[in-house]
Amino acid sequence: MDRYWSHVVNCSSCSVAYKGFHVLEVVLQILSIVLIGIPTAINHGVMRSVDGRITVVSMAVLCFAASRWLSFFIYKTFHFHDYKHAFC
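Below the sequence we write its predicted structure tokens.
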């Protein structure tokens, strides 16, 4: 049974939650790309400290990991297909 088409599309609360989570996932992906680009695009004089670069890159990795976890959460919560297959 496909949970998305049987319930999420017809339920206004779930539909709003689905759209909000999807927007958050995209924002986290964009933020991770922007955070990776900051140390490489700006002048080296501005971000001279290694600690600053490590912090920015770490935040980018965390944002990307959060977006991947959120993608799994969205699939598990809103798109789960519950098929039971018998094995011989």
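The chain has a mean pLDDT of 82.
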